[in-house]
Structure formats: structure tokens, C-alpha cells
Fold:
Amino acid sequence: MSRTAPIETGEDISRPHGFDPAKLAQIGPALQAYVDDGELAGIVTLTSRAGEIVQSDALGWSDIESRTPMRPDTLFRIASMTKPVTSVAALMLIEDGLIALDDPVSRWLPELANPRVLRNAAGPLEDTVSAEREITVEDLFTHRSGIAYGFFSEGPIKSAYDRVLGDPGMNRQTVDEWLAALGSLPLSYQPGERFHYGHSTDVLGFLVGRILGKPFRQVLKERIFEPLEMTDTDFWIPAEKRERLASLYRYDEQAERLARVELDMYQAPPDYTPGGGGLISSAPDYHRFARMLLGHGAVDNVRLLKPETVDLMKTNRLTPSQRHIPFAGMPLWEKSGFGLGVSITEDPIDNPYSSGPPGTITWPGIFGTWWQADPVNDLVMIYMIQHQVPVSANSGSTIATGRGAVGRRALPVYQHGIYAALDSHPDTD
Structure:
């Protein structure tokens, strides 16, 4: 068992802002139990209220085999937590007047002009019809472009994504090659028809790069990471930082133990930098980003977005009929709306992604990383693990049962523990 000291911030966290210290102190041991039971390798949490750090823990191991302890600045593959970052970059271009939500993306991405659409999303690849309209910028923000992920698809298109595009996270293609390959595939649904999780945010990031004439990685570095001092967030890790990267594990149900998942590593910054899921980051870095959103586009006198742009970002864009369609096997849209790259809590009761009151924003990562920004309580919560969740072969569901889904089962312990410790808070149970 390993537990490190809280994150050093220069602030006295023994007197947390508006929290019961005794209840806060219960969160770490409750999470540590998942490590002690061999269900999770390690966990890092970070919580702030009104910008003041009120809770932080680094529990267990970033690498079990080498007995490397988790640290407050351990690096994590944050997967789809990349999407809100990419969305902020695109919103900055909207503020600059370079793009608009209703612009057709083929203006800059001719590879996606005149798309074909599957007559049946699970049907033969050759059975298509013409798209009723072009894919727009808003379609990319809201996953209503018709572009899919292979693992969120059924039928021939599922294997076609894997075959034509390759690994969605680690890919050796250039951006131009990847976009051309994507353009060769039919859409699963008509543009604007429904929320269908996929490569839309990857395309949004590459669109930002095309418009600015720069690699998307450079755009993020110049416009978001450097201003916010997010020094540990990038699409790759230099050699001197690799010992800080947490290893990825899955729970082997047959062996009843954690098994390490071996992943390839880039030796140099890649050309393919997917804005939908490629970033590596740390709890302190993402905390800065979340605080910026909680601060209506600014943090510590650094402004990235106008307040009205952040309000636009966290305004639901899904139609009533679109919200009846389950996401990953869950009735998520009965509890939350979806705006421009983030989900917005409307009902926290039994909400699988959010524990905060209405208006809270979030979007998690498939390896168990999670965050939320709660404007009602001026609260930011960060939860970092590296645990591979089994994905259903026929429905694309990322919510599994059994010990394999322990990352999702441990998360509510942190969520409920924070709100239970809050001296005055809305009922979110």
C-alpha cells in the first residue's frame, strides 16, 4: 500500500473552505480499499472550492510491477477528457470570427465533402444514400455528424473503421492521410440526425489546425496550455517524464487480478494528434483547465473565452427526440444535456456521469479519468485512474458489470464523499 502526501499548493488545507475536515478525511481510506483489494492499481484525486484546494490524495501505485507509487503529478492518458479541450480551441476560433457553427466543414476539409450515408447503420457498406446536407461545425461539436467510432458501431462499418482508420488513439498516419481515409467511409447517420459518439471531435481538432495553418498540437500549446501553465499536458511524453506515466490495467476476471495492458509509445511528437482522445495530462493541469471553465472562461487573470461563449458551450443542443436515444446503453440524456463538447447536468439523481447539481459540466475518459465543474458550489473535482473498461461487442457500451468496471464503481465513493463533506450543499444523492 502506498499513499503520498497531498499536493503542495502553499495553502493550508487543514481548514478547507466550507467542508467538514473529518468527513473529507474519510474519502482517502474509502478509496484505498479498492487498491488494497487488488481492484485498482492507484487513484489520484484533487478537489477545490473557490480556487482553494480542499482535498487531494495520491493512493496506490502508478505501476504495480515496479512498485512505483502514485504521485500528485502522475501523468494519465485522459482519453475523452481531451474533447472539452479541443472544443475550447474551436470556440476560440468562433470568437475570432474564423468559423461559425453553421459553416460546412468541407470548406476546409474537402475530404468530407458530399458524404454518403448508410441506409441502415448496421447494414452493408455499399448500401448508401446521399447526405441530405453537409456536415457542419456544430455537428462536430455535438457528435451529430454521422461520423462514428468503430467500437460504438455495429455491422460492417465497425470493422471498416478499424481496417481503414487504424487505432483511434495511437496512429502512424498523417492528418491528411487519416482525413482522406475517413472520407472514404460512409456516415452511419444523416448529419444532424442523432448523437452518435465518434471521431467528430478528432475532426474538429484537425479542422482548427487546417484553418490556422498549424499542427493542432501547436495550437493547443500556444492558445491553451502555455497561457494556463498546463506544463504536463501533451499528445506525447518526452523521455524525461515517462517514469511519471501511470500504467494501464484491466481486471482479469478469470485470474481474479489486475493485468497490465501494454501500449505503444511515440518516440517523437506524432503528426496524428486526435482531439477526441489523445492527450496525456495530470490532475493539477486539468484542474487549471476546469477552473477556467468554472470561471466563465478565465482563471487567475488569464482569459481564454468570453463568458457568453462558455454559456453557449454549456447550453444543451440536443433535441427532445435525440435525447430519448440511449448513450452507451444508459439513459444519460434523461439526466443531462449535451452542449458544445461537454455534458450539462440537469438531474444528478442516479446520473452515471455527474454528481453535481444542475448546471454542472463534465465529460469523462474511457480509462476511468473523470472531472466536473460545479458552478453552484464553485467546486472542481478531478478523479484519475488508468483502468481499461470492457466494451460490449454488440452495443458499444462502456459500462460493464463485475470487477472489470471497478473504476466506475469507485468513482461514486469520491463523488458522494465530497458532497457529504460539504457543509451546505444541495441534495445530490
Q: What stands out?
A: The two ends are 30 Å apart (CA to CA). The chain has eleven helices and 16 strands. The mean pLDDT is 91. Residues 406-421 form the longest helix (16 residues).
